[in-house]
């Protein structure tokens, strides 16, 4: 289960932070590290600060875009301050987030995404997430470095995993969720249907952000998403072949 939990670091500037994050991961039993456009990697500083977690560093994958890092994941949680402009489901506390993540990690990959040291994740990157989570730090000085944030959330995930292991009889496997790639295809299909129908008239309308948030909260299963795709296809065919008036 822990092998299905991925840590994604986006455009990390200091290679030493990658090493420290790898160390934080290994202390909690996590090993899947993906780096999105790091400034410098591989790097001797990353290996040095990883200490005994060089295996995590050696097996880390580097990709060019966040979509490549999370495309096969069924739940993607972005670590950031709450963004009111993007109405994604938000966890104000890491504990319930970790419990939900563990449930979905039983049979599919999930991800925790961390942004740049200085300004975190962009709005476009958050759009590749299904949820957001914040760490409730001191409001007068809530500054956490990257490795600290990884350590805190990795600890919560491990604690949730231990609780799950201690009471497996009470845990039920949730329905299989679609991957982010599958959701992206659905969102593109929905966009085309909204444009074709005339419902969506502005190319950057926030309507689509609200619809993404709606489906993120609903968490449709793969079967339900297939039904929704079928509904869209049927409506598109009906719109392109209107009945002749008698």
TrEMBL record:
It holds the Pfam family SpoU_methylase. GO terms for cellular component: cytosol. This is tRNA (cytidine/uridine-2'-O-)-methyltransferase TrmJ. It catalyses: uridine(32) in tRNA + S-adenosyl-L-methionine = 2'-O-methyluridine(32) in tRNA + S-adenosyl-L-homocysteine + H(+); cytidine(32) in tRNA + S-adenosyl-L-methionine = 2'-O-methylcytidine(32) in tRNA + S-adenosyl-L-homocysteine + H(+). Belongs to the class IV-like SAM-binding methyltransferase superfamily. RNA methyltransferase TrmH family. It comes from Chromohalobacter israelensis (strain ATCC BAA-138 / DSM 3043 / CIP 106854 / NCIMB 13768 / 1H11) (Chromohalobacter salexigens). The lineage of its organism: Bacteria, Pseudomonadati, Pseudomonadota, Gammaproteobacteria, Oceanospirillales. Its EC number is 2.1.1.200. GO terms for molecular function: RNA binding; tRNA (cytidine(32)-2'-O)-methyltransferase activity; tRNA (cytidine(32)/uridine(32)-2'-O)-methyltransferase activity. The keyword Cytoplasm applies. Residues 5-155 form the tRNA/rRNA methyltransferase SpoU type domain.
